[in-house]
Amino acid sequence: MSVTQNTAVSAVPAKGALKRRNEAVTAWLFMVPAALGLIIFLIIPFLMAFYLSLTNTRLISPEPADFVGLRNYATLFNVALIKVEPVIDEQTGAVMRDENGNIEYPRARTILHGDAKYEGLQEAAQFNLFGNHYLFAAGDPTFLRGLKNNFYFVLVVVPLQTALALLLALLINQKIKGSNLFRTIYFSPVVTTMVVVAVVWTFLYNPGEGTINAFIKTATFGLVGPQDWLSNPKLAFPSIMLLSIWQGVGFQMVIFLAGLQEISEEVYEAAAIDGCNMIQEFFFVTLPQLRNTTIFVVIATTILAFQLFVQVDVMTQGGPSDATMTTILHVVNEGFRQQRIGYASAVTVAFFLIVLFISIIQRMVVPEERAVD
Amino acid sequence: MSKKGLLIFAVLAITTLILSACGGAAATPTPEQAAGGEAATEAPAAAGGSTVTLWFHSGRGAERDALTEILGNFADAHPEITVDAVELPEGDYNQQVQAAAVANDLPCLLDFDGPFLYNYAWGGFLTPLDDYVSADMKSDFLPSIIDQGTYQDHLYSLGQFDSGLAIWARKSYLDAAGVRIPTLDEPWTRDEFDAALASLQALPEVEYALDLKMNYGRGEWYTYAFSPILQSFGGDLIDRSTYETAEGVLNGPESVAAMEMVQGWFQDGYVNPEPAGDTDFIDGTAALSWVGHWVAPDYIENVGDDLLLLPFPDFGKGSKTGMGSWNWGITSSCPNPDDTWTVLDFMLQPEQILIMTNANGAVPARSSAIANSELYAEGGLLRLFVQQLEGGYAVPRPITPAYPTITTAFQEAFDNIKDGSNVQDELDGAVDQIDSDLEENNFYQ
Fold first, then answer.
1. pLDDT digits (tens, 9 = 90+) for A129-185
2. By percentage, how much of chain A surpasses pLDDT 90?
3. Alpha-carbon distance values, B45 to B41, B48, B65, B79, B217 (Å)
4. What is the per-residue pLDDT for B15?
5. Chain B window 103-132: which residues touch A at a Cβ cutoff of 8 Å?
6. What ipTM was assigned to the predicted interfaces of this complex?
7. B437 close contact with A: CB closer than 8 A
8. What is the b/e burial string over B77-94, where b = at least 16 CB atoms within 10 angstroms of the residue's CB?
9. Which residues on A lie below 8 Å from B22 (Cβ)?
10. Which residues of chain A neighbour B442 with C-beta distances below 8 Å?
11. Mind telling me how many Å the CA of A264 is from chain B's nearest CA?
């Protein structure tokens, strides 16, 4: 559309140049409010965070903050892989074993505290590889755990939530009575505050009196007993994922719905004449037509998923044993609960770069198609 | 990079910036937001008078009403001073005050949850009250209130009340299970307590022998309620002789034994790890309730004459319990500290204290108020709380600016321990966290 307008204008060159300049000025004027907002609320705070990350600023302290260079980042990315030798029985010279017959290794803390070169490192994981036992230690194991959980969350939630949103959008796009009612129902969790959703789901997940356990018990005729949804390290994070998908799916559904309604009826008519069945129609007409919508939905969902905070803060505070720790929760814990503003800023800056990098990769792998370039 | 590439880069950069900003925004409560909860206690401004700004945590409804009543009384007695009171939600209270302190936006008078005070005193945000409080007045306060308010030989805060922490029980259940009723002079031993839990658990109406109020969730409750167990075993949260390390104390054999015992209570099914509500004890499904004074009005009303208040067991080094509660301090940025003291002094009058403690069931902070309190005077139902505070059974939480870190570390460890993690590993982790904070801050010298 804009192409035709432009050609029409450039038919009169002198006037056209002036008009283009006016248009440019108008465009800049339109941008000012949004740009000011971005500069004041995003770019300046980010630059401040970057500056703070180079200091040891504390929230409350009579001492002035010192410039510490990259020390915070050094702690953040400090890792070591240590090969651990088994404990040897001094009398027999044999390898010590516990009551289950497993080889005994010295405690991680003993190793890390015993050697000055491991100062500032804490145990992150222990594992066996090629017959050797290794200790993986990090300057901030909680950060790594949070990052790992964030990726886990994104890898599970983004595909599931996108697929489910598309399915719901297809369902409510049918021209049948009552589809407006379903649109409202599916969308209602999105407009509910996350804190409220989290509190309600805490009750649903309650092991003793929660609805979910009661439902499972009835549905399986009592074969499956009550589960500790939020205090079992294996179940806690999937439980959070489930509620996050339920809460967020309506938003993506609405975007898909808009995308679906953009697709012209003629394309479907042509497909029908060519003898497409419903499945072919979906894969060869609907999906390709939704390409740009899908890209937007995937990127937006990814970024939202990396923000995971409210649910875990309200429901599990990162527990049990860091099973639901996320990077943003770690930032809040470090910065506000432990008052280490300088260090918390370093975590946000590092996390920002990681997420930015992922978004750029996503864009490079699946570029958006444009009708007019 | 092409123009288009640059544009995409810019868009993505901004989108991701939104991410980092949102993460931050969720955590940064601004005083402006907070001011939304302005209480209706503002008296009409008197001509020529000064205004004292006041912040307080919004506790239970009855507590709020009591403060409103006290400030109303103040307005009648001192029309020349206007009190501008703002109420902040309790959950985020400390974080909001911290943010305000950083932004230099603190009010004149505000309350603190127990040991969080020291961090502000160390940071230079508070004015000592030494010049305002006479020796007579000081000696009328419970020793625990003075201990709590004193940091580095200066008195920084005074509270209207102190807390009491003990075990609530039903006499009928103890009789049915054949359990001896303990006293402060002769508390349960560990063996007796173990046996009591087992026989109470066996009663048909009991689902859980012990109610540890796990529905309060991870927070200050964990440290307040369960660090006395460490102390009764001979352990502690930090080495109090130097306040420079927790090594060998929080992860020493005594503390480990204490936490292993607590973990055992959960593993044996004596404790409901996730109660759906706050009523297990009232409903009679929990036999013993390990909780503070604030449940008193509720429990007295619902359980009646069957209600007993019992001291904590002696796990080896005597019966120990918690103390400390909300206390008031005056900020150093306050333009009119003298008027502010007039307000605080009024709030600390015995009659005003009783308005508050009758509403929330807490221990009145002054002997003269205790004497006039039906529940706490000699022979009163809650007299045990006073005896615990006066007799040295109550242990203050560590008096150090490192307290926020200590409590966060302990809460995390406790949360994992109750879910079954290795006790030694968890306490070691907490010690590492505390010690690195102490080192980072040059031991708060």
1. 888 889 999 988 999 999 999 999 999 999 999 999 999 999 888 878 888 888 888
2. 34
3. 12, 9, 21, 8, 42
4. 55
5. 119-120, 122-125
6. 0.77
7. yes
8. ebeebbbbbbbbebebbb
9. 307
10. 63
11. 28
